[in-house]
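User: I want to check something. If I give you two sequences, will you return the structure for each one separately, not as a complex?

Assistant: Yes, each is folded on its own. Here is the first sequence with its structure:
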Amino acid sequence: MIETKVGVFGATGRVGRLILDDLKLDSDIGLGSVYVRKELDFSIDPEVLVTKDLKTFLNASDVVIDFSLPEACEMLLEEAIKTPKPLVIGTTGLNEHQLNLIKEASELMPVLYATNMSLGVALLNKLVYEASKALDGFDIEIVEMHHRHKKDAPSGTALTLANSAAKGRGLELDEVRVSGRDGNIGERTKDEIAVMALRGGDIVGRHTVGFYNDGEFIELNHTATSRNTFSKGAIRAAKWLVKQDKGLYGISDCLGL
């Protein structure tokens, strides 16, 4: 008997399909419902509820995992505010309004929002903060690489890493971030944090945060070789989140970092 029923929002996406597969391997948590805007193009257990109605989807779920698109995530959040359920949000590229909806939802239910669900990236964020704080005067440059189909740039993970670096220096990221250089732009400023995006092939995800000084430099790197690191991380987060009180959480809270 499954103790916790998961609702998967964005089940037809790359990570969504993996979540469906990985849930089959877990004895404590399992697939309860799937929300679809169109028809599923693959078979699914007939006992699983497949619905186009968001309220029905939420009512059939103990916890929801979302890996969709920003517009779809917004729709989910608006309905969840009326029908509260624990939400694990892994959608990236969210705008200010959508991020505010996450905050509003977290006042009514537990919400875990993470731009990357992997253990390695959670630890990398902590290391970037500490390095940024310790290496005063080092230039900070971030490069991220993803597959050709990724729609948002820079990646949510890269922006989260940049924010960790900015916090380590006591800076506001929006005031110091550079995401492109072209032409005779002059010398690099002291505080700027560069975030550059590369796209090509089938790269799952690679993020490098470099700290560069005269005579030496340090680079911290994380490479995802499989999207299963994201699906398994999301399932782990869902297991943890159903036991939490209302509030806004990050992946580091789930992992105790």
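And separately, the second sequence with its own structure:
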Amino acid sequence: MKILFFVGKGGVGKSTNSALFAVKIARSGKKVLLNSIDPAHNLRDIFQVSLNPKPRKIMANLAVMETELDQWVKKYLKSTEDDFKAVYKYQEAFNLHKYFRTLKYSPGLEEYAVLLAMVDTVQSNREMDYIIFDTPPTALTLKFMALPSVSLLWLNELIKFRQTILDKKKIITRIKNGKQQAGVETDPILAKIESMVTRYREFDNLLKDRQLTRLFAVVNPDKLSQAETELIYKELKNLGITVSFLILNRYQGEEHILSGLEKKYHDSRVIKLAEQDNEVTGIEMLEAIDLPVEISEI
């Protein structure tokens, strides 16, 4: 399975490009799932069909879906609440359950929802040859891609802190019971943290796997989108994530811009997609556009 992400500033044409690549790859005989994890959801307008979180077959070898992030936020909150209740069984006696509602105000929920949706899509559709993601605008995309690396740093420090607490607890138990050794007991909190480390490491490896994952940065000839593309490259490089392709979308013969991008982003393959005379909607219009790269190279 190959995983493709289309990233870039809002309005540069990520949805159109993700749809174009999805249609062309499907026509080549590969099984493709295209998922919009962008709250704006433009794929329904491009394909001119109603879409929802369940994959819908659009044509031979191509299914399309639109993830609702609010549903994933609710799933995460419910899972977190259940974990709290399992670990802190005494919470009912102290009425701690009424404070769980504050979880919904926690920062980072939206980007965590995006990450959960992405991983669930991959794990639930392993029979696909390609899974393509139409991503949210830059800020949210960079946050969810940074989430695994940042969380691993925090969780590893949290393990050290929890282990220190457990060591102190053992000392107190030995003193209290007058025993040289206390019985070994599995700590549910430490076990939960360690399981989270395993999960985040899998997410992180997935994003950084250059054989499995391809990132397509979409940019327009204008200065604003070029400036945002520079930010995307910088932040992703800091995370150890490589941009495989840079698509100069809505190209109208600006050779100086194309050559400038090729020099600046020499580690990526720069390709161009011409400006279309009309708004691209429907499979027939997508099929009429030439793909700027061979499918075997993706």
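Because they were folded independently, the notes below concern the second chain alone. The chain has one domain: 2-289. Residues 2-289 form a domain with the Rossmann fold fold (CATH 3.40.50.300).
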